[in-house]
Structures are given as structure tokens and as C-alpha cells.
Amino acid sequence: MTRILFICHGNICRSTMAQFVMTDLVKKAGISDQFFIDSKATSTEEIGNPPHYGTINKLRQMNIPVLKHAASQMTRADYENFDMIIGMDEWNYRNIMRIIKKDPEQKVSLLLDYTNRPGDIADPWYTGNFDQTFTDVMEGCQGLLQKLTD
């Protein structure tokens, strides 16, 4: 079983969107039993909160199920418990590394690393653009799934 952890700053916008998109993609591919997919935050600001209404609205618009979720913070133990830890931007990557200290197994990456345009996924908390975030998250998750199933 491949265990994937998506990470963003607050765990209410991008990482939850990635979790739900990836969960939907593996379900549609008929391989849900091969994956455990979760998401967490690097900060404590949103702990316990549900996904942002903008994330919920965009996922529903795209017919992607919104799962029960409460924001939680990543811990050092998550490094041992997950095969892949995937951040949304360079700031997340630096904070992940601050939490885990080192990455000897090279588990940490950014979601857009799995596309032909590596870079950051903008935080819709600040931009308000959940459409662009969704486009980036979907492309990243599709690329990740392709890499994992090739």
C-alpha cells in the first residue's frame, strides 16, 4: 500500500483539495485498496477546522466527493508513517523539512514536480482563485498517479 500525505500551510484549502482529488482518481481507476491518502498542515492556525468553503464549492462543482476532514498538523512521526510527503509550495517544503529535520529516503516533494511545469501551487486563501488551484492540483495528482501506476 502506498501512503501519501499532502501538506499545505493550514490544511483547509490546497492539501485537502489534493487529498480529495487523489482519492477520487484512485477510486475511479479501481485501485483505492492500494492507497492511503491523507493531508495535514505545517501550521497550527486552522487545527480542527473543516475544509475552506471555497475548496468545498470547487470540489462539488467538479463532482469530487468531499470527505469528512478536520485540519491537523504534521509531526515528525508522519515521516515514518508515509511513503510520500507532498507539499504545495516552497514555503511548505521548507516547513516540512523544519518538522522532519532531514529526508534520507527522499520522500518529500512538491505536487507540481509530477507535471511538466514544476513550481508552486498558489494558496487560494490569499488569491481567492480556487479555479486555478484546482487546475494545478488536478494536474499534479494526475501526474502523480501516472508515475505511481507506470
TrEMBL record:
InterPro entries xrefs: LMW_PTPase, Ptyr_pPase, Ptyr_pPase_sf, Tyr_phospatase_low_mol_wt
Keywords for the protein's UniProt record, in alphabetical order: Hydrolase, Protein phosphatase
Catalytic residues, chain numbering: C8, R14, D123
Enzyme class of the recorded protein, top EC level: hydrolase
GO molecular function: protein tyrosine phosphatase activity
Record keyword Hydrolase present: yes
Pfam families reported in the protein's UniProt record: LMWPc (PF01451)
Superkingdom of origin: Bacteria
SUPFAM superfamilies: Phosphotyrosine protein phosphatases I (SSF52788)
Residues in Phosphotyrosine protein phosphatase I domain copies: 2-147
Record-listed E.C. numbers: 3.1.3.48
Record's keyword annotation contains Ion transport: no
Family according to the record: Belongs to the low molecular weight phosphotyrosine protein phosphatase family.
Matching PANTHER family: LOW MOLECULAR WEIGHT PHOSPHOTYROSINE PROTEIN PHOSPHATASE, LOW MOLECULAR WEIGHT PROTEIN TYROSINE PHOSPHATASE
Record protein name field: protein-tyrosine-phosphatase
Organism: Treponema rectale
